[in-house]
Structure formats: C-alpha cells, structure tokens
C-alpha cells in the first residue's frame, strides 16, 4: 500500500481576502523533490517535480505565460 504524504500548505503572500471570500493559491514544499499547488477555493491540487516547478517559475519570470490583451 502506498502512503500519501502529509503536505504542509502555506498561503501565497499575494493572497487577498475580499469579503471573507479567499481566492488564494497555496503551496507545499515539505516533501523532498515535490511541489504541490492547490486552490483554497476548490481544494484541487497539482503536483510538480522540483525540476518542473523550477522550470515553470523561470518561464513565469520571463513572461512566458503572460496573456496578451
């Protein structure tokens, strides 16, 4: 049987609470080699390897995912 790790999520520093309606991104990095991101609204989570997460952040910082108007 596979044990599911206990993730320790923390809320993004960019999170804002509007009328007690938090719409935040939470991230867990306490399991070696994994980064898990979840929505505070739905609880859905996406798991990344540490390398995938680093590549994603690099792309985001370079504007790779910017939406054009």
From TrEMBL:
InterPro entries tied to this protein: DUF397 (IPR007278)
Domain DUF397: 9-61
Pfam families named among the record's database cross-references: DUF397
Protein name: DUF397 domain-containing protein
Protein's organism: Streptomyces katrae
């Amino acid at each position: 049987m596979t044990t599911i790790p206990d993730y320790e999520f923390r809320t993004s520093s960019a999170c804002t609470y509007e009328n007690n309606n938090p719409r935040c991104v939470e991230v867990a990095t306490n399991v070696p080699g994994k980064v898990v991101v979840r929505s505070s609204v739905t609880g859905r989570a996406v798991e990344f390897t540490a390398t995938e997460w680093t590549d994603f952040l690099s792309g985001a910082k370079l504007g790779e995912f910017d939406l054009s108007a």
